[in-house]
Amino acid sequence: GGIDYSIPIDYTKLNKSDLETRAEFYYNSALKSKKLNEDMTSALTLYSILTNAYPENRTYAIRLGKLYDTIGKDRFAKGEYYRAMGIDHTHPEPYYYLGEYYYSREQYRKALKLYLKDKVRDYECDLQGIVNNANYQHYLEHCRHEFLLAHNISFAELHEAGTDAVVARLTMQF
Predict the structure, then answer these.
(1) d(Cα 14, Cα 149) in Å, to the nearest integer?
(2) In this structure, is the dihedral angle defined by the CA atoms of residues 101, 103, 107 and 110, taken in order, positive or negative?
(3) What is the mean pLDDT for each group of 10 consecutive residues in the chain (174 residues)?
(4) pTM score > 0.90 for this model?
């Protein structure tokens, strides 16, 4: 026999509202600092507790994924995004964040595939369910806007500062 190192936790005794408030506070602070510090550790701990206590909540898994992504723990980040997809495979949010994960690593095909999980509408496909090639430029433009928004970059502020972000060239091969 081995030694059982698990410590049973009675999650019913925890105050969910208090945990969420504290987790959100540390989460926002950790994402601003973008490094492994006390706030990051607190956010990771609190969202891990919430994820264990309420495994059906995809938001907790997504937040853990984002935190792990921020500190470069790729395997854990992807694992949490996939966990969120498993909780509710019809909700677009985990696909978006996993798409952001791949986009930030310049794995654009994987990112686009995940973005399209939410973005493809039935009228954009032919009778075989294949996306019409004319829609891909639109998707890429949408991804560009989503990327800037996710990084708190505003097209309007760029314009006011004298920078107009335009697509000068785009080549696609099908």
Answers:
(1) 35
(2) positive
(3) 73 91 96 92 95 94 96 96 89 88 89 74 74 80 77 84 88 80
(4) no
